[in-house]
Design brief:
Blueprint lengths: L2 E5 H11 L2 E5 L4 H9 L4 E5 L2 H10 L3 E2 L26 E5 L3 H7 L6 E4 L4 H15 L3 E5 L2 E2 L6 E2 L2 H12 L7 H13 L3 H6 L2 H8 L3 H7 L9 E4 L2 E4 L1
Helix pairs in contact: 5-6, 6-7, 9-10
Length: about 240
């Protein structure tokens, strides 16, 4: 039983073959939004596209998420601040081509935890406990980003750092990949907001007027919630 860090769907396929507990990391922004919402009692239905989010909202009596620029009172987005004041029990079909897509593909694993930097220690510790109970390993999956206008995916440094933060809290021996991610996180921890703002995703968000979302995502262990994927739903524990 070991803790490793892997990338997106190829890593997921190997983790499923091993029967590992999964930790899904999409720091900017699916994981951070989910942590912020579930900390308030929001239930999420992950959806890989806007169309799927609308369908899920009809099937599951949920509110479909909207794009950040469409946000406002009673509207929910990938911005963590959109869940300020959200009522407990609210159901949101949350669209994301990265973290939500990975969550849908993860159904059926022994356990699936969602982690950002904001809840890394709680999520990593819970994953480790689950793995020991199931006598399996833990794979922390860095989601990466879909390149605009393309099906190709790119490496996302923020997800590697988030994976390292979560892996640091897993009480299992680490593979070299996990150790490298942990050391990267520890090396950047003192200046995480500045680092995230210089990543490709961080610069895109800041350029669009959402630097506050990046700053929130950099708040290591600000939340103690453990979002768990159960069937179609993600609920906090």
């Amino acid at each position: 039983m070991m803790c490793t860090v892997a990338f997106d769907l190829p890593g997921l396929r190997e983790a499923r073959r091993r029967g590992d507990v999964l930790v899904l990391v999409d720091v900017l922004s699916f994981s951070t939004a989910v942590a912020a919402g579930t900390a308030r009692g929001v239930v999420f239905l992950p959806a890989g596209s806007a169309r799927r989010a609308k369908l899920l909202s009809l099937e599951e009596d949920a509110v479909p998420s909207v794009g950040r620029r469409e946000g406002g009172p009673g509207k929910y987005t990938l911005s963590p601040s959109s869940y300020d004041g959200a009522p407990a029990g609210l159901r949101v079909a949350l669209r994301s081509p990265n973290g939500a897509r990975l969550a849908v593909a993860s159904r059926g694993a022994p356990a699936v935890v969602v982690a950002g930097l904001v809840n890394a220690s709680a999520a990593g510790a819970a994953a480790g406990e689950g793995a020991k109970a199931s006598r399996c390993g833990v794979t922390v999956l860095a989601a990466g980003e879909r390149t605009a206008g393309s099906r190709r995916r790119r490496y996302a440094a923020e997800d590697f750092l988030g994976a390292g933060a979560a892996a640091a809290a897993v009480d299992l021996p680490r593979t070299g990949e996990a150790e490298a991610a942990v050391r990267a996180f520890e090396g950047c921890r003192g200046d995480l907001e500045a680092v995230l703002l210089r990543t490709a995703s961080g610069m895109e968000l800041a350029g669009a007027g959402f630097a506050a979302d990046v700053a929130f995502a950099a708040r290591v262990d600000a939340l103690r919630v453990v979002p768990l994927l159960m069937g179609r739903e993600i609920r906090g524990r």
